Structures are given as C-alpha cells and as structure tokens.
Amino acid sequence: MTYIFDGSLTGLLTSVFEWFERKPGKVTLKSAEIFQPEAFAESLEIIADQGKADRVWAGLQKKLQKDWLRKFYCSYLSELPDAYHHLFQFSCYIFQQQKGAENNYGNEHVIALSKYAKSVEREKHRMEAFIRFQQTADNIFYAGIDPDFNVLPLISNHFKNRYADQQWIIYDLKRKYGLHYNLDTVEEVSINFEKGSAQQNLTPALTDEKEQLYALLWKDYFKSANIVARKNTKLHLQHVPKRYWKYLTEKQLS
Amino acid sequence: MFERIREKLNILADAAKYDVSCSSSGGTRKNDNKGLGNSHTSGICHTYTEDGRCVSLLKILLTNHCIYDCAFCVSRKSNDVKRAAFTVDEVVELTMNFYRRNYIEGLFLSSGIFKNADFTMERLLLIVKKLRLEQRYNGYIHLKTIPGASDELIKEAGLYADRMSINLEMPTEAGLKLLAPEKSHADVIKPLAFVQQNIVQFGEDKKLIKHVPKFVPAGQSTQMVVGATPESDKDIMYTANTFYKNFALKRVYYSGYIPISNDSRMPILGTQPPLLRENRLYQTDWLMRFYGFNVQEILNDENPNLDVDIDPKLSWAIRNMQHFPVDINKADYQMILRVPGIGVMSAKKIVQARKFGRLRIDQLKKIGVAYNRAKHFISCADSPYQLKDYQGTEIKAFILADSQSKYLKTAQNQLLLF
C-alpha cells in the first residue's frame, strides 16, 4: 500500500491520522511529486486536512519532548523523499509505544530522524556562518542563498535577534522566497528579479559606496590571518566545502 | 587614507595570527537594547583559512610596538618589522562593519606593550567601552589581559569583555626564562587569579541580587607554545592540568612553534611546525575534559611522551587491556566512553538504546561507533566468538594495518624517491 501526500507538513500529519483510521498494514509514504504508479500496488491519495493534522501534532507533543519535536520538524524541512517516509513510520511507532520510545536508537526510524535532523541543523548552522550581507545603496543588507535544505524558517530568529538595528533580506534563490526584516518584524517576501539577474552577489551599481571597501578589507584580513607554514588544504575543504564558496566574500576573486 | 588602513590591517592582523584562540563560545550577551549583535552559545566559525583554522573573530593587535624582546614573538623589540597602531575609532569601525556583514562573530583584541602595562590596558578598555556603550554592540569580545596592569583597569575591562586571556607562552618556567628573561609565570598567574576571583564573586552576588552585571561570562583561557623549547608532553599537559584546576580555565591552547627567527636557542627557520604533536596534545586535552581521564593515566614517568602513530585513547587502552573487552550492554557510561572508537555522542546513544533490548553490531554501526576500531575492545549481543586473547601490541598492529594516518604523508617536506 502506498500513501500519496501533497508534500506539505499538514499532508504528512494527515497521513498518519489516516493510517490509524484504516490500519491498512504496511504502508509506504510518498509525495505526489515523485510518485510513480505501480502495476500491482494499491495506493491512496491523502487529502491534507488541518483538523486531522492538528490532532496528530497535539498527540506528538504529548509523547515527545521539545528537542524531538524539533528533530521532527527539521527532518521535514530536509525535503528528502526518504525522510517523509521515515517521519511517517516514526510517528506510527511513537504512537504505538510507551512514552520515551524516541530514545530507542536501535530503531531504524529513530536513527534516521536523528541523522536527517543533524544534516539540516548543520546546514542551518552553515547558513548562519557563511551568509555574507552586502549593503545596498538604500541601506538594506542583502544576501542571496541556495541552501541544500529549506532552512529559512530555522534561521529567521537568529538573524532577527542579531541584526536588530539594520534592515536585511535573506533570499533563497532555489526556493524563490526570502525573509525581510523591517526593523520590527520578519516577513516572507518574493522578489521578481529581472531575467537572469537572480544572484548571489549584487553588482557594484546596486551597493553602498563603502561596500567594496569593507569587502576588500575583509579579503585582506582573510589573507593575513593565514599561516602559510601550516597549509592544510584537505582540512580547509572539509570545513568550507567548495559549494559554499560562492557565498563567501573572501573567496571571490575581484 | 584608505590605503593606510589596509596597510595597518595587514600588519596588525599578521602579527596577531599566532594567537590560536578563536573560539566565540560561551557568550551570554543578549541583544536587549535593539543594538547590534547577539551571542550564540556555541559560537560560530564564519570561515576557515587555508591552513584549516577557524576564523570567527576579527583578531588584531592594537599595536605591534612592544617594549619586550621575547625570542619566540614576531613583534619583539629587536625584530626588524614594520610597526603600526590603530586608533580607537578605526578598531570600532572595522568591528562594527565586519559584524554587520556577518563576516565575524566578534573582536579579539590584543596588543604589544607600549610605554607600560597600564597605558596599554587603558587603550584596550577605551575600545571595548566605546563598542558596548556608544555603539550598543552586543557581539563577542575576547580581550587580552595585560600582565602588570592595575586591578581597577582589569576589573573594569571584565565588565565589557566576554572572555579574557593571558598566554603562559612556555609550558615551564625554565623554558620561559630561556627565551623571555624579563617574564615569569608568576606575572601570568596573578592577573589570572584576580579575574577568576572576580568571576566567582560576581557569580555569588548574582545568587542574591537580581541585576548583577556580567563579568567575563565566557571565562578565561591561555596558550602555550609547543616545540620551541625541549619540554616533554608530560610537562606540557601537567601544566595545562594545573591551570585547568586552579583557575577554572575554559580552554588551554597549544600552538606548534613556527620558526620566525634565526635565534640559536630555538628550531631553525624552515623547520616544519609540529602539527602532529599539537594534534595529540589536543586529543589528550579532550580526554581530560570530556572523557573523564586523569592526566596521570595518559602521561606519567613511564610514558612521558604521547605516541606518534596512534592516538592517546587507543594508546591507553592498549596499555590497559585488563579492562577489556567491555560489555556494551552492561558496562557503565564512563567505561563505554573509554573504548577507542566510541565518542561522547555514541556512548550516550548506546546507554539510551540498550534499555530497549540488547544491542547488535549493525545497530552499533548505525549509532556511529567506529566499529573496526572498537571491535577489539567490546562485546555485544552478536559479537563473534573469539578463541584467542590478543595482546595489546597485536591489536595495535591490526588497527595500524587497516587505517592510514592523515599526517605521516603530509607532515614531512621530504618527497618520496620511488
């Protein structure tokens, strides 16, 4: 039996509800996006239902501590097809067991969730570290990103608390939405870039006059801080994988 | 003007880079005045240099003018290098603008000693006060305590800094006297102890009074240069252990000496920095702080130096085979933690997971145990039956045979002939 859901968190939670409603035995959960009909397998389309989803979430809140609710949410944000299935199985397992079953690291779904959560948290942390703002001419600090996972919801508070006295925009170029902090609240925005102009780095024409100076000073600093006698490229790449270099001011040539 | 600031930054960042501490963890400052900056408990490394070291702070000297002539230091009086000094405003501007662009987690401010200790400490204090009070800056500040500065200045600086540090420089008094006759460990101990007393005092007050200002919330640290003088690993780690115990230090850093002068008392120019040794010392440091080891178990008169080919945890296990094999399903947490190939996270997961049933090999692997290493020291639900008890030396040979050291190939400048 295959359950097909719409890819939303509501849909995922609804499918857990539906499983307990119908008890169809072994089920695989797939999102509509990747589902391919199979000749001999039955499938059921789950229609996302906020009421049912809320009941499942409330149930999880009763069973799980805060840290595990976060792991659950992080795994969902990974947007990986297998993660959806593990989330579904994990929920069913948690509801069928006594409280505390999330500590059973011998269970494949428990260990899967803790691994997904770890990857997503790592990506979140990398965004907190590697985002580089550019000051625009109208005094907004802009950064364009395309993270492996959908981490914008996780980093919003960090940047809001930290940069409370400056306007900023962090834009997810892959998922085509961003966050704008207007000195008061953070709001979701989408920008219509002119064709081909959606980009990591702004052209000098758009930036503040001081921007290039500080970028240059930062590049200088990065070079000065290096100790040539200790060169260790392997370790360097391990910490800053090449796919993140496009974010980093200090790694840009010009 | 612009070229001048570039030049200053190059000189003063270059001179500061031998201080290895770059941690930005332990800060508790919250952005409650709608200013700039909010500390992150575990710190953030914003980038890494090509030598693989983390960059989280803007690490600069206020000036590299110095009245001392310590042989191991690039800024020593007798060294022929370009000298420069930042103004207070320049440091403030740089910090604020780097922070706003998310380049850095904060400022690491050190300085050569010009005129005298108090004069230098006053300048450092001016900068941190301006950042905190005028700019409403709540980011991280790591400030050097200048030995010999007056208690009042040090105490006031502690109200604005997150971490303070003073470097021991050489692991033993004898080593320090050899290279820096004007200095002594006692000069370091006095201010370290003074700051520590104040941290404790402010902590006590906080229990009774609600609004007590923060005082060095991220604690103190120190640094030792390794390999400039002929101390053994035992000397180094025993000193570190004493300082951890007596001053509740957050960190002791070990900095492999990079030859910077032709001084005949030290390794000659072009000698490779002792990177592997530095790594082994850090591993020992971790075993002391997170794995419940006593320094005497790892280093003692029979073993005054750490093994080069294997890490100190494995080395301890091989010397103490009477404790193994450890039954993963029964042994207590502290013993599981001592198994080579099992780290803190895995040990915690094992202790949780075994409540639900006896653990098997495949589960251990998924939990994150380095099984190929750990298998010589553990038994679990489906461990294969073993006829022979292997000696420690045999196990070492097995492990070395199927692992490759990341160091031995790169640490030497010598090319292979064939």
Automatic annotation (TrEMBL), chain A:
Organism classification: Bacteria, Pseudomonadati, Bacteroidota, Sphingobacteriia, Sphingobacteriales
Q: Which InterPro entries match?
A: DNA_repair_put, DUF4130
Task: Please report the name of this protein according to its UniProt entry.
Answer: Probable DNA metabolism protein
Q: Which residues form the DUF4130 domain?
A: 84-250
Automatic annotation (TrEMBL), chain B:
Cofactor(s) for this UniProt protein:
[4Fe-4S] cluster
The Gene Ontology terms for molecular function here are: catalytic activity; iron-sulfur cluster binding; metal ion binding
Q: Indicate yes or no for the key word Iron.
A: yes
Q: Which domain of life is it from?
A: Bacteria
Tell me the first and last residues of the signal peptide: none
Q: Which InterPro entries match?
A: Aldolase_TIM, DNA_rSAM_put, Endo/Exo/Phosphatase_dom_1, rSAM, rSAM_sf, RuvA_2-like
User: Which residue intervals define the domain Radical SAM core in the entry?
Assistant: 61-190
Keyword annotations: Iron, Iron-sulfur, Metal-binding, S-adenosyl-L-methionine
Report the protein name in the record.
Putative DNA modification/repair radical SAM protein
Its source organism is Pedobacter rhizosphaerae
